[in-house]
């Protein structure tokens, strides 16, 4: 059937080109001899109308068939855009690239969605010398809406807003599909290979609060791409190479002279780094030896590689503690991985005449960038610019990535802009084909609105922060006397869910581009848009079926046989809210702003509360407390809310618990 749709569409497009060509000819000729043209034109128009009619029937059948066969959720907004896109093309076939705007209606009494294309189309037509009112355009669009399974009715309001009312049976059918098949991604294009570069701490330095944002945001982006069916490579581009290793190895040789035969027991890596830095700054002899160590390391001397490897191993163990707490999976591929590729990168730029010499440095100027990339320093060494170019080249040509996302602080935006521009200049990728993007984020501030630091002015260690979160989470649970009703295992699970969930959600619920204020008091508050509130809401929803003595098997059985009634306005509102999940994910896929998902989950939770306060799910005898009646379709709405919330939590990297 899809082949026939494509065939008819192609024939219509060909005929419309012929119609436009003949119309232009007739306008030129304007004399009696054009009768033949006119007759041919009318014939084409008649044939065109027949084809369009058959095409619309086929499209409707195809949509209905794919809805029945597919387990995927349907993006209602996208489906409406297709419907209105067809209507606009049918009403105004000569208007190329007509604006298409379909959004959820902010005022439910006017409908469920709204098409706002008419106003923008009127402006576009006015610029071409055609004066048509937006309302007239809206009327023409409505007349050309093809038959479909989604729309109950449309109404034109004001200057040309088209209000759309969805069919209840369509929404009910989608909710049933969701309950039977689980939360599945909306059907999308081909599977893509995605590289996400995130976290990226420096070896020999402890992870601090600055690494928190990159780690949490990057992990959530990976989870989103994975849920949508793409192949994701989670890369940790650690700083594991460079001149700082000279001083670290020299200090290691002095402090643990038997490091070649016994693993050096470096207890406090941060202190070890500070000691070596102090010696490097104050002891001239040590400084010389540190430079010699760098040369030996770069020449791959086995003893120095062993020392370097020992320092890296200690760091990895510290990093892994953080990653285990936050449930982060990464493939480490540090700067050292790209060392041998840098020579080839520089040669490629030189062979294409793109390298200039500036005061002994070899630099590359990218189009539109005033600052060059330094690919070789005056002493012959490579730089971060060189390693970032080598990493990008490897991801494009060896990994064959379709999408590459760099998650670092916004301060590096300028650097990546130049790296991407240089890569395009040399022909490594076409931005129309391959998506290469820097997803920057603001800094973490303390409650004084200054950079988040300890009282002594030091950077906050990430493990200290997470330990503090665990302590405060347990205090909060004990304040609510949860320790008296939960088993020790349940209490520990709730403690971790709240502590780590709140830290993640506090970050993700803010627009990543902005700075955000880190406050345990706010993030552990169980009121408002916080993880604590959402986790409590989730456990409450899950408890409804348990209190009604309905098990999972009964819900699954009822899902396939119970009609979702949706007669009450709060049932209808909740049902539509649940089904907006694919739209939300699609938007995040486009702009990589995860706070949209947090806002949606909060809206879903508050919409559920409205529903639960107004619609009895379980009716009990006031005297005995026994269950008298269960409204199964409402229980299924509870279940649909919970499974969408659970998937939203999963994408955010938050682990809910059944009891809290």
Give the fraction of residues assigned to helices. Answer: 55-70%
Radius of gyration: 31 Å
| Main β-sheet description | 5 strands, parallel
Structural class given helices, strands, pairing?
alpha/beta
Number of helices: 23
Distance between the termini: 51 Å
Q: Kindly report the spatial arrangement of strands forming the biggest sheet.
A: 7-6-5-11-12
Q: What proportion strand?
A: 5-15%
Query: What best-fitting shape do the alpha-carbon axes yield?
Result: flat
Average pLDDT reading: 89
Would you count the extended β strands for me?
16
Subunit arrangement of the protein: single chain
Describe the model.
By secondary structure, the chain is of the alpha/beta class. Helices cover 56% and strands 9% of the residues. It has 23 helices and 16 strands. The strands form 5 sheets. Strands 7-6-5-11-12 form a 5-stranded parallel β-sheet, sandwiched between helices. A 4-stranded antiparallel β-sheet has the order 1-2-4-3. The mean pLDDT is 89.
Summary, kept brief:
Helix content is 56%, strand content 9%. The chain has 23 helices and 16 strands.
What topology does this entry show?
Elements: H1 2-29, H2 35-69, H3 76-91, E1 102-104, E2 113-115, H4 117-127, H5 134-143, E3 151-157, E4 161-166, H6 168-181, E5 193-197, H7 209-227, E6 231-236, H8 244-255, H9 269-282, H10 284-298, H11 302-326, E7 331-332, H12 342-351, E8 356-358, E9 361-364, E10 373-376, H13 384-397, E11 403-406, H14 413-425, E12 435-438, E13 444-445, H15 462-479, H16 488-508, E14 516-517, H17 520-523, H18 531-547, H19 552-561, H20 569-579, H21 581-591, H22 595-614, E15 618-620, E16 627-630, H23 632-652
Parallel strand pairs: 5-6, 5-11, 6-7, 11-12, 13-14
Antiparallel strand pairs: 1-2, 2-4, 3-4, 8-9, 9-10, 15-16
């Amino acid at each position: 059937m899809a082949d026939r749709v494509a065939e008819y569409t192609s024939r219509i497009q060909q005929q419309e080109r012929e119609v436009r060509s003949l119309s232009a000819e007739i306008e030129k000729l304007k004399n009696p001899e054009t009768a033949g043209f006119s007759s041919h034109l009318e014939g084409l128009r008649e044939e065109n109308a027949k084809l369009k009619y058959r095409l619309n029937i086929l499209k409707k059948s195809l949509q209905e068939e794919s809805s029945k066969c597919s387990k995927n959720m349907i993006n209602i907004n996208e489906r409406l855009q297709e419907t209105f896109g067809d209507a606009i093309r049918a009403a105004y076939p000569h208007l190329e690239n007509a604006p298409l705007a379909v959004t959820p209606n902010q005022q439910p009494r006017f409908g469920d969605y709204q098409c706002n294309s008419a106003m923008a189309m009127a402006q576009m037509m006015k610029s071409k010398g055609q004066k048509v009112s937006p309302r007239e355009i809206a009327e023409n669009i409505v007349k050309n809406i093809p038959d479909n399974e989604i729309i109950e009715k449309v109404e034109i309001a004001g200057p040309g807003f088209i209000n759309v009312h969805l069919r209840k049976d369509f929404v009910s059918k989608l909710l049933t599909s969701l309950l039977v098949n689980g939360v599945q991604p909306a059907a999308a294009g081909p599977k893509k290979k995605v590289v996400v570069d995130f976290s990226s701490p420096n070896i020999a330095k402890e992870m601090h609060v600055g690494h928190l944002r990159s780690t949490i945001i990057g992990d959530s982006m990976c989870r989103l791409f994975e849920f949508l069916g793409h192949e994701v490579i989670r890369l940790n581009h650690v700083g594991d190479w460079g001149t700082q290793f000279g001083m670290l190895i020299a200090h290691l040789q002095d402090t643990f002279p038997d490091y070649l035969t016994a693993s050096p027991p470096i207890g406090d890596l941060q202190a070890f780094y500070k000691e070596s830095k102090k010696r490097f700054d104050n002891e001239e002899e040590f400084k010389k030896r540190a430079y010699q160590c760098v040369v030996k390391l770069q020449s791959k001397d086995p003893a120095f590689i062993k020392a370097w490897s020992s320092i890296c191993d200690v760091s990895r163990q510290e990093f892994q503690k953080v990653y285990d707490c936050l449930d982060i999976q990464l493939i480490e591929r540090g700067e050292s991985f790209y060392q041998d590729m840098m020579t080839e990168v520089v040669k490629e730029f030189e062979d294409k005449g793109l390298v200039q010499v500036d005061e002994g440095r070899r630099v590359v100027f990218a189009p539109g960038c005033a600052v060059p990339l330094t690919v070789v320093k005056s002493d012959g060494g490579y730089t971060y610019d060189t390693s970032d170019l080598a990493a990008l080249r490897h991801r494009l040509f060896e990994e064959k990535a379709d999408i590459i996302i760099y998650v670092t602080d916004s301060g590096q935006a300028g650097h990546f802009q130049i790296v991407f521009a240089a890569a395009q200049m040399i022909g490594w990728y076409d931005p129309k084909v391959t998506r290469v993007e820097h997803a920057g984020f603001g800094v973490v501030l303390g409650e004084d609105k200054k950079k988040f630091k300890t009282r002594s002015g030091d950077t906050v260690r990430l493990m200290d922060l997470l330990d503090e979160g665990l302590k405060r989470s347990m205090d909060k649970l004990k304040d609510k006397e949860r320790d008296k009703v939960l088993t020790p295992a349940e209490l520990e699970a709730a403690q971790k869910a709240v502590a780590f969930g709140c830290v993640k959600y506090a970050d993700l619920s803010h627009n990543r581009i902005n700075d955000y204020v880190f406050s345990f008091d706010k993030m552990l508050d169980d009121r408002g848009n916080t993880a604590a509130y959402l986790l409590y809401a989730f456990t409450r929803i899950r408890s409804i079926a348990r209190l009604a003595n309905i098990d999972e098997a009964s819900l699954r059985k009822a899902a396939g046989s119970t009609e979702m009634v949706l007669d009450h306005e709060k049932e209808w509102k909740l049902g539509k809210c649940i089904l907006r999940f694919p739209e939300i994910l699609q938007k995040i896929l486009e702009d990589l702003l995860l706070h949209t998902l947090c806002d949606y989950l909060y809206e879903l939770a508050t919409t559920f509360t409205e529903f639960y306060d107004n619609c009895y799910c379980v009716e009990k005898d006031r005297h005995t407390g026994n269950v008298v009646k269960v409204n199964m379709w409402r229980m299924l709405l509870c279940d649909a809310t919970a499974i969408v919330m659970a998937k939203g939590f999963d994408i955010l990297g938050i682990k809910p618990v059944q009891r809290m």
